[in-house]
User: Fold these one by one.
Assistant:
Number 1:
Amino acid sequence: MLKKTQKLVIDSLEWMEDRTGIWAMFGPVLTHLAPKDAKWWYVYGSATLMAFMIQVATGVALMFSYIPSGGQAYDSLKYIADVAPWGHLIRGMHYFGASAMILLIGIHMGQVFFHGSYKFPREMNWVTGIFLLAFTLGLGFTGQTLRWDSNAVWSIVVAAEQAARVPVIGHWLAHFILAGDNVNGATLGRFFTMHVFVLPALAIAGIGLHMVLVMRHGIAEMPNEEHPVIVETYREEYHARLEKTGIPFWLMAWRDSFFSLFVVLAVLAAAIWFEPPPVELPPDPSIIETSPTPDFYLKWYLAVLSLAQSDMEDYIILGAPAFLGILLFAVPFLSNSGHRSPSKRPWSVVALITAYLFVGGFWVAGEKMDWTPKVHPKPITAEFIGATEGPIWHGAQLFQDKGCYNCHQMGHDGGKKGPDLTFVGDRLKKDNLVIRINMGGVNMPGYAGNMEANDLRDLVAFLEDRKRKHSQHPEELHTGQKGID
Ligand code: HEC
């Protein structure tokens, strides 16, 4: 009986293998020889893949409930975040999974660069990797816009404005991004298609190619000062060493599995303990925030832009990514042979550390500095306003709702991107205020055409009333007004 069952199982497996060739196809992945010294340094690539798989699984789950239409996206997301069973957790995992994926790519790239693993014959491993980085950042940006709240809509506007700066085809590009001349339902459809279809398809194809290349060239050994890469002889030497000391990949894959499991648990824990970004206000074209804040992995870039002189911005916005992109692609072609060992490549190590410091430093700056609008200032109190109804009170609400408060200090809180307006009534008369609000200025949007006449009147009434006599906090007489007169 036992014998018979055994034979049946074996026969079935053999039949399956004969008709599909699955083992012939994937077996070599498990059995191919890998360098024995490939230890914990090597787990970041497979962990990135794991993060991507988290994104696919949670992304599909989100898609079951998300409605990609201008009128319903915001509500369906609210539903996912607040009502749907597991919705909050899955949304959190999708958010922190994206963050994990981007961080892991950063570490994986750093390791490959540090160890010179991009050198001959693995140049195309690096190049496909850079494409994967680009697809991932694209996924991050398009995903952020699917929140379809005010921040998302203005991010798209900013992206379209940047694209419009490209010479010759700029106007066409902006039109393509917006699916028209302004943000509308079709724009959302376009971003949705990019996020759930085009970019994932490209990423999956890219990952496949990346894996095929890893198999083709084998996993790089740890760098060894005695074995610099010599193009003519490298392959032969690599295989000879592997025959002697290599071990089958599946024997060492436990480290990858262990670390990937850790990534899954970390993402899960983050989703439970930390909140994903709140679903902000629904989009409203009269709430103008000229500086929507991107998710953290792009924040450092926003910081670079904000620090740059405004007349330099064009070059930086277009030039910097183009330059960085070309530089990244060029890495394996600038030097594809010679030493891989970091101790023999001091300049490469300096470059790597500089790159990390640059991104890290601007990232911290982006979190801290004043020129980004403040996202959630404390509500202005009735005490400060000096009224609980009427035009002045209404004006104070508009000051908060229309985004002014995010850039301007008013009393104890508010943004520092623009001048402190706590005592603006002492400085500016009605007409000046109206002109300011309608025309905007350097780094301030103009509100003409985006605000009802009544609203403008009340807002100005509130601002005109901001005189020293109104201060309920005597200490403000000395500290409220800093360097503006
Ligand atoms: C994106 C940030 C931002 C937003 C939003 C914003 N401002 Fe400004 N605002 C600025 C900056 C920056 C300046 C200085 C501009 C300049 O000098 O050209 C400024 C200048 C002003 C001034 C002149 C102040 C002075 O002392 O000269 C007034 C008044 C003003 N803003 C009112 C408003 C009101 C009212 C709103 C909302 C309807 C608003 N701002 C929204 C950034 C902003």
Note: Strands lie at 33-34, 247-248, 409-410, 413-414.
Number 2:
Amino acid sequence: MLLKPFNLHTPKRLAAALELYGALPDVRLQAGGTFLLNNLKTLKRKGAKTPQHVISLFHIPELKGISREGGHVIIKSMTTIDEIYNSSQLTGKSSILHIAAKNISSQLIRNMATLGGNLTCRYTWTEMPATMIALEARLHFTGTNGEEIAVPAQEFFKNAAKTDKVFTHVTIAEDASVAMAYFRAKKSPYVDIPLLSLCIKTRPVQGRFSETIVAVNNCVTFAQRDYVLEGFLNENHIRPGIEEQALAYLDEAIYDTRSSDYKKHMFRVGIKHAIRDLIGKSHDYSRN
Ligand SMILES: Cc1cc2nc3c(=O)[nH]c(=O)nc-3n(C[C@H](O)[C@H](O)[C@H](O)COP(=O)(O)OP(=O)(O)OC[C@H]3O[C@@H](n4cnc5c(N)ncnc54)[C@H](O)[C@@H]3O)c2cc1C
């Protein structure tokens, strides 16, 4: 299907993109386009209004790349999912992003889709949101007036991932003493989108779970934390068998929302799998 006509703008600097974004009426931003172009086609099919202007962020070098600075990993918004998968900069806890990225869709989508698009598209079948919550990442935005703000990932998704600013980058504090685990199940064998995803972080201290974050994406609401499961884990030692007991301490509302029996079962499989993974990894932190 052909898209309805629009004016495509291709600024070369962030400042120029912000100026256009502030000045043009009826405008959308484009990163990799994997979500946006489908969205514009859906709007056309429904007979709804489509934007007059699209600003591509593709030619803006300030929005690309992964680096480490001052104890933080910085991932710019236009970094593709494939670049995240292949990056040697993502070590320690940030290496969990390799696993999340590897599981996203197909190579063709990973080549085009960006971190920024994944986090800001307000589509719940995405995997970076739960991962960023567990990593305690901060999302950085610049407004059309040039003002910069940083928001914890958890807050962003609690507020339904709404923004009228340009998302520029994410920062993740480096931390060598935490263990991370990731689990996802796919929705359909035909189009690889997730049915659910989970990312768990813990800081093993003297054989106990501590500062645990359980970030859950049930793929029908925005990614959120299971504080009930976190509380249970934080009161316990890291030991084999704890994963079975943990299933009695879940915030069921998260897992039951619009879930089939299969999905509820897969959540329990995922939680056990992720906790077992953490138990295995916690040996690496046995000095603590
Ligand atoms: C076939 C298919 C399979 C998929 N499977 C998976 C999967 O398995 N796992 C998964 O996690 N995701 C999956 N996705 C979703 C995919 O990851 C998203 O489509 C992608 O991440 C969006 O990124 P993009 O760069 O293409 O964004 P775009 O499509 O360009 O933009 C998406 C939205 O975000 C906004 N936006 C983009 N960048 C910025 C920015 N810097 N600041 C402010 N707003 C911005 C745009 O305005 C637009 O509204 C799949 C998508 C498809 C089409």
Note: The CA atoms of residues 183 and 270 lie 6 Å apart.
